[in-house]
């Protein structure tokens, strides 16, 4: 029995969907579809994240195929009670975007911000991470209005090397979440920000207007559409 077969058995035993699992781990569902269809193999980090997020999964079964598929309720209860697996992370809801921009420009920090509880496997040791609430549907279908994402700051020295991912960009008095495809900060001193939604439009931002950059690393909560 392959690791893919064991994963299918685990998911069936848990009674949860691939979408639910991906949401809990802050991953794209397509990653798990590719694994279950045999087009990819789960990484060590993925397996460890699954075991940390769902302690009822038997590590012996998932890794070596030794039954049972799930731990006994008694063992599971002990593991669940052993440690809180979430961390409070500063949270920036849409209504506080302007306040966040203002406090950032004044050299403030996020210690007084609201917080959002994030599972430790999702946080993956990222430092100075914040949870942002998505405003509007310019990044749909991947990021719908109201979705909450984990974002980590990008050092100014590394701005010119960012490309291909989704980022939160603070420029002038704006704070937007867009995809970076054309990074010409080194050559032409500007950054082009793209919407995933064709109706969302694009924007070109000069280097001198950029005040902060955060990389979106995972989805921590998504609305049901």
List low-confidence stretches. 74-83
The whole-number mean of residue pLDDT values reads 84
Radius of gyration: 20 Å
Q: Determine the N-to-C terminus distance.
A: 36 Å
Content of β-strand: 25-35%
Order of helices and strands: HHHHHHEHEHEEEEEEE
Secondary structure: number of strands: 9
Strand order of the largest sheet: 2-1-3-4-9-5-6-7-8
How does the helix and strand content classify structurally?
Answer: alpha+beta
In one word, what is the shape? elongated
Q: Sheet with the most strands?
A: 9 strands, mixed
Helix content: 25-40%
Question: Helix count?
Answer: 8
Main traits of this protein?
single chain; 225 residues; alpha+beta; 9-stranded mixed sheet; 8 helices; 28% strand; elongated
Structural features, described:
The protein contains eight helices and nine strands. Strand 6 and strand 7 form a beta hairpin. The chain has helices spanning 3-14, 18-25, 29-36, 44-53, 59-64, 73-82, 97-105, 120-123, and strands at 86-92, 114-119, 130-133, 148-153, 166-171, 174-184, 190-194, 202-206, 210-221. With 225 residues, it is an alpha+beta fold.
SSE layout:
Elements: H1 3-14, H2 18-25, H3 29-36, H4 44-53, H5 59-64, H6 73-82, E1 86-92, H7 97-105, E2 114-119, H8 120-123, E3 130-133, E4 148-153, E5 166-171, E6 174-184, E7 190-194, E8 202-206, E9 210-221
Parallel strand pairs: 1-3
Antiparallel strand pairs: 1-2, 3-4, 4-9, 5-6, 5-9, 6-7, 7-8
Helix pairs in contact: 2-3
């Amino acid at each position: 029995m392959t690791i893919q077969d064991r994963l299918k058995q685990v998911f069936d035993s848990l009674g949860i969907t691939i979408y639910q699992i991906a949401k809990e781990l802050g991953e794209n569902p397509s990653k798990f579809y590719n694994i279950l269809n045999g087009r990819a193999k789960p990484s060590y980090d993925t397996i460890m994240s699954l075991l940390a997020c769902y302690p009822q999964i038997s590590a012996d079964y998932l890794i070596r195929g030794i039954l049972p598929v799930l731990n006994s309720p008694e063992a599971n209860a002990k593991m669940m009670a052993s440690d809180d697996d979430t961390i409070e992370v500063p949270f920036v809801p849409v209504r506080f975007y302007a306040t966040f921009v203002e406090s950032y420009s004044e050299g403030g920090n996020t210690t007084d911000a609201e917080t959002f509880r994030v599972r430790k496997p999702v946080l993956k040791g990222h430092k100075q991470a914040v949870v942002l609430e998505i405003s509007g549907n310019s990044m749909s279908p991947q990021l719908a209005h109201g979705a909450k994402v984990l974002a980590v700051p990008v050092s100014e020295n590394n701005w010119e090397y960012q490309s291909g991912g989704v980022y939160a960009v603070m420029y002038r008095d704006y704070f937007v979440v867009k995809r970076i495809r054309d990074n010409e900060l080194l050559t032409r001193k500007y950054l082009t920000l793209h919407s995933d939604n064709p109706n969302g439009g694009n924007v070109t931002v000069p280097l001198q207007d950029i005040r902060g950059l955060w990389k979106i690393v995972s989805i921590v909560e998504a609305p049901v559409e």
